[in-house]
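One chain given next:
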Amino acid sequence: MSRVLRWLLLALYLIVVAVWPSAAAPVTLTATGAAVILAAIPGPVLLLAGVVAWLKHRPVSASAPVA
């Protein structure tokens, strides 16, 4: 039983070590790309874009008449 358990642990270790870096690479590259894009856009422009998006999509109050 010990020998089988050791083989299973070795197989699990090899799967994790071989698969994890290749599975995590796209996530890491996406986060890095997003950080680069956000760093290239000035802060006031991002703030203005956020305000415009909020004004465009703000919730309608319950007392407003419905057309």
Observations:
- The mean pLDDT is 87.
